[in-house]
Amino acid sequence: MLSPTSGPSPLAPDWLSLPVDPNALRAQEWAHDVVRHPAGELAIDGLSVQQLAEEFGSPLFVLSEADFRRRAREFRNAFDEAFAELGGGVDVYYAGKSFLCTEVARWVMDEGLRLDTCSGGELLVAQRAGVPGVKLGLHGNNKSDAEIRRALDLGVGRIVADSLPEIQRIESIAAASGRIAKVMLRLTPGVHAHTHEFIATAHEDQKFGLSLAGSDGPSPAEQAVLAATAAEHIELLGIHCHIGSQIFESEGFAVAAQRLLGFSAKMKSRHGVELGELDLGGGYGIAYTEADNPRPTAEIAREMAAVVAEECTRLALPAPRISIEPGRAIVGPSTFTLYRVGTVKTVVVDGAAGPAERRYLSVDGGMSDNPRPVLYDADYSAVLANRASSAAPVLSRVVGKHCESGDIVVRDAYLPGDVRAGDLLAVPATGAYCWVLASNYNYLPRPAVVAVRDGAARVIVRAETEEDLLSRDPGA
Ligand SMILES: *Cc1c(COP(=O)(O)O)cnc(C)c1O
Predict the structure, then answer these.
(1) Of 331, 355, 370, which one is at a domain's C-terminal end?
(2) pLDDT at 7 over 60
(3) Which member of 134, 149, 232, 292 has the lowest number of beta carbons within 10 Å of its beta carbon?
């Protein structure tokens, strides 16, 4: 058998550096209460990962409640402070689609946030968690009548309307139940941001929202304002946009805010309509690997507030009530996934610089508990979790157990050369868009989520059993 070659690998991507100490944790990828014990093992709030894996099995999502709450509070405080001078007030909506269960919905309420949902199922979670309707938002480009009705019955704080036909449907459903629907309009400002770049265009080619651009006559956005203000059972609160995800800079938000406020000013002068609320969506970036360097939330908030203040002054608009919708940036770094290593093999790859070795570490989950690498080419990092190692790091790829060669969890990481079957690996920043996107591919049961608080772990979503997998098959 080949023994892995240590040192920098020609197969490594440019952004990946050979770690001085592969046992070290890069703080920004981890919940603040995860540490490596002097004895070598990873622990969260005093609980060792071996204990967790033994008690709850693997793969396992391990969520730090304190970390989640801290990030939620940080968003609320940073935006409250940044926008305090404007005076319009701020609401922070946690984007439930990033990760949601009743327990998390309660933390969101405790911390003074609101909760965004985008389906009947997410509304039901919120309802069972006891979230007051006024604290809820409902999104979606294709809401069913039943979802709109459920939202109105719950008394949601707002429905974010996505199209002209939907405004008519909301009006007739609200009329039939004798209610007034509070509505925001989702507009597409022609700004698309992803990580370090954003593009600004006039026209939109996507399924969401009402365009600000009109070729002949009023734009879809303007028509929607007129339709919503004319509707007797709709109270039009304001306008909304969401420009992308995993964004690190504030320019994209700034351009979107400028365009939306410009639209507000136009609606005021043309139609005398005051759009009192401005929602700038979510998308705040987090660190998945050493290549990501998110800026402090407070800085981004201050930059956004400066742009809104300047535009409001320039356009002689009263300060709107602001809302934002972070998901990933609150729950993403709060969670890591624990996997157990099985098969280990080393392959020789013919690279540009001649043959080089890559180590494959197969774990007991994969694309069924984290499809983001497969779906979005997302990169993650990993560390050896049950012990420290003094073995030299080798270029490794963490792969799952599914019947697909693309089933990759961590494409490139330097891990100690002695990682072996039975070891535990921890992959940080898996709180957002992993569990919620999990599947039962190859009839794998979906993992549990445990929350850790005050040195104790408890299940907040139990693991599926094999019986669960068969429960919908009437012949089983
Ligand atoms: C997905 C989504 C969010 C949350 O995005 P994050 O990248 O998780 O912050 C917020 N608002 C809307 C409308 C979304 O679709």
Answers:
(1) 331
(2) yes
(3) 232
290, part of any domain: yes
For ligand 1, atom 13, name the residue with the nearest CA: 242
Concerning whether 241 is annotated as a catalytic residue, the answer is no
Place of tokens 């320019």: 251
Report the pocket of ligand 1 as residue ranges, CB < 6 Å: 95, 97-98, 139, 242, 245, 281-284, 325-329, 432
Q: What angle do CA 428, 430, 444 make, to 5 degrees?
A: 115
Total domains in the chain come to 2
Closest Cα to atom 10, ligand 1: which residue? 282
Q: Do 324 and 401 belong together in one domain?
A: no
Nearest Cα to 222, choosing from 258, 266, 166? Answer: 266
53 pLDDT above the threshold of 90: yes
Confidence band for 1, pLDDT divided at 50, 70 and 90: very low
Top pLDDT among 5 and 364 is at 364
Q: Which residues are annotated as a binding site?
A: 283, 325-328, 372, 376, 404, 433
Per-residue confidence at 2, pLDDT binned at 50, 70, 90?
very low
Ligand 1 pocket mutation, candidates 245, 253, 335, 376, criterion most atoms within 8 A of CB: 245
192-209 per-position pLDDT tens digit: 988 778 888 878 888 999
Sign, Cα dihedral of 71, 74, 76, 82:
negative
What pairing do the DSSP bridges indicate for beta strands 42-44 and 34-36?
A: antiparallel
Q: Which of the two residues, 354 and 279, has the higher pLDDT score?
A: 279
Q: Tell how far the Cα of 365 is from the centroid of ligand 1, in angstroms.
A: 26
Task: Give residue 297 CA to ligand 1 midpoint distance, Å.
Answer: 16
* Active-site residue (options: 101, 118, 403, 434): 403
- Are 53 and 174 within one domain? no
Distance 327 CA to ligand 1 centre (A): 6
Kindly tell me if the per-residue pLDDT of 6 is higher than 90: no
Asked whether 118 and 139 are in contact (CB, 8 A), the reply is: yes
Residue-level pLDDT at 5: 66
Is residue 214 one of the residues assigned to a domain? yes
pLDDT in tens, 263-311: 999 999 999 999 999 999 999 999 999 999 999 999 999 999 999 999 9
Q: Is residue 9 part of a domain?
A: no
* C-alpha span between 156 and 120 (Å, rounded): 12
Full residue range of the structural domain in which residue 102 is found: 87-331
Is 38 found in the same domain as 92? no
The closest-lying atom of ligand 1 relative to the alpha carbon of residue 244 is 7
Cβ neighbours for 264, distance < 8 A, ≥ 6 positions apart = 239, 275, 278, 315, 317, 320
The CATH number that applies at residue 327 is 3.20.20.10
